[in-house]
Each structure stands twice: as C-alpha cells, then as structure tokens.
Amino acid sequence: MPSLSAFTVAPTLETPRLILRAYKPSDLDRVAAMWAEPAVLRYLRKSPIPREDVWVRLLRYAGHWLWMGFGFWTVTDKADGRFLGEVGIQNFERDIEPEFSGRPELGYAFIGAAHGKGYATEAAKAALGWFDNHIDLPYTNCITSPDNIHSQRVALKCGYEYVRQSIHLGAPVAIFRRPRVLPSSP
Predict the structure, then answer these.
(1) What is the mean pLDDT of residues 131-139?
(2) How confident is the model at residue 133 (pLDDT cuts 50, 70, 90)?
C-alpha cells in the first residue's frame, strides 16, 4: 500500500476532449442515472444500483483519495460540461484469486450515449498517467466480464495484458495486469 499521499482530493486532469475532476455531492443524480442505464449494467447486473448505494459509492471514492492518495474522477465533456462517466484507480481489497489485496485496479463506466467514442480509453490513459507519475507501485489490475469485449479493448489499449479468468462474487471475471510506466526524464 502506498504511504499517505498529499492528494486527499482528486486533482483536475484535462485531455483533448475531457475534464476529469473530483466528485461533489451534487453529482449524485447524474451518477445514479448512469448506474440505472441498461447499457451500463449489461455485463454487471440485472437491476439498477439503488440511489443510496450510489451515494455510498461516491463516499467510497472520496475515501480512496483520503486514505490511499488515489481514486476516481467524474468525467465531463470539455466542450459542454456534460457528464459522461467515471474513471479511476481503486483498491477494493477484493477476495479473488490471484490475490488482489493491496493491488490497485483500473475501473471505468460511461453513460450509454458515450459508448464507442473513445472516451473510456482517453480518460483511462489520463488516470493511469497520473497514477504512474504519483504512486510508486509496480502494477495495476483491471477486471471485466469475460463477455465484455468493449471493456477489454479499453484495457488492452491502455497497456493491460490478459492474465487469466477467475471468479469474483460467484461470477466469472477476466483479469488483466499492467506494469507501471515510469515517467520520462526531461
């Protein structure tokens, strides 16, 4: 686990098309709407995530920054400020083989209208670039449904390699791993 970082709130990151920023309580309704979309839930679950569970998710994201020095960002369109989704690095201490304890993992979810436009890859690369520059850990993991080829493509474009299939909470998952990319010297 990294030592406590100076980052207790997500820094704002910008890409050519996106702004990644810290969550605010006012984001709850937009995030809850995303976690109710069938296109978002397709490979995860059959029913929407209840609003109160989304609230706990936002609190968990804030706690990641406070305790771990890294976490999740909300992703908005730079041109119009529209909410598109979320991306970040998390440590959920998952009970999974191979061992995930203390190993951060990339995660991302985007509204259905944002699918297929490259936003997830753009946001994930920005989050990973920040992580590699600030957190000294040798690698990150990423898990997806074995059926979610779109999510797997994002992971592969970000430098992840397939490790193996496993089971998490009774469901099969595909596990990917990416070594840290050290920042270039000037």
Answers:
(1) 92
(2) very high
Is the alpha carbon torsion for 30, 31, 33, 38 positive or negative?
positive
Q: Is the Cβ–Cβ distance between 145 and 174 less than 8 Å? A: yes
Q: Which residue, 182, 6, 185, 11, is CA-closest to 89?
A: 11
Cα distance between residue 15 and residue 19, in whole Å = 7
* pLDDT tens-digit series, residues 139-159: 999 999 999 999 999 999 999
- Domain architecture of the chain: domains with CATH: 13-138 (3.40.630.30)
